[in-house]
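Record type: monomer structure entry
Structure origin: computed from sequence
Chain ID: A
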Amino acid sequence: MYAPAPSVPRSRRTAGPAPRRAVRGPRLAALAALAAVLFAAGCGDSGGGDGPLWQSGQGGGATSSAEPPTGEQPSGSGDATGPSISLTATGDVIMGNAPDRLPPNGGKGFFDDVKSALKGDLVMGNLEEPLTDDTGAGKCGPAPKNCYQFRAPPAYAAHLRSAGFQLLNQANNHGNDYGQQGYENTQSALEAHGLKHTGAPGEITVLDVKGVKVAVVGFSSYPWSNSLIDTDAAKQVIEMAKGQAQLVVVQVHMGAEGADRTRVKPGTEMYVGENRGDPMRFSRAVIDAGADLVIGHGPHVLRGMEFYQGRLIAYSLGNFAGGGKSLNSAGRLGWGGVLKVSLTAEGRFVGGTFTSTVMNGVGRPSVDQQDRGLGLVREVTGADFPKTGAKIDAAGKISAPAGG
């Protein structure tokens, strides 16, 4: 079990220009209510079963999808006009688990095999562990049993920067594994290496991306983040973000976990007694409120992609890295991907690509030459979203469906 809900971390400040409109009282009250319920935050990373829903050779290309040369935009719907920016994202990132389950060479070179895929004008990841020394406030105690807590040394922020990441999301069930101090230590470690962060309650992170103001906001079902459960409050946060930026990107840790959780259906998803949100309802609600892209993670497996109101929703990008065997890499639990989406400053979808990745036995990621993740995403997208699903070809190029 966990200690009482932490006070709001220091990162509630907004990075970037001041809001163009005032925050009204009801909004502040809604945000304050986000911490009203404290959920247990254990993570059963082992998942269930390892038999893949899709096997190599049944729908994906034989080789990994190609990364467009720098400056070239991924193919898309063909009707977008004006310049665009590229937004790149991954799913769950764990580099190791201190003190004794860390990669060799102090983590140097951990991301070398995927650096070619981590290209874009803004590169984001879901950091599912604190970067901190032991604060003495580990959620599982000194002898964890059936409880998962992670942390990596603060210096490991340098490996994220070297890999190409520019912004990390902390809104997930492991962001507070070492308490408020560990959470704030993570922010300091990221900032020391020029990396942005998002996910704290009320935190709207605004970046200038090639002259376009982009706001990134993180959500989860835990009190140290913006609430995934309270969709009315979530919409208010997005409305505020839209008042500060041209584009709004949502990072959201949502959905139940396990190898058998690749499908998306309407309704609330529960896991170990926790409400992990209603992914479809949440994603569509934040788009209605002004979000331009929704990037999901949390189930530890890949899920499908759909278009809603012309905006792309990626329901889960799966496991990207699980250093020190922190994440189960068996079967499709070891498959992830790098999503790259190009949008105009008005939020119009230009195109995208999906590059399959895979974790080895110790959780280090590489580009998957068998494209197993791509095959899985294509299959479940077609099954779950026959009318609204993204069109993804065998090379990983993404386009909107007719009328999408």
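Annotation 1: The chain has one domain: 54-399.
Annotation 2: The helical segments are 25-32, 157-163, 179-192, 231-242, 279-288, 372-384.
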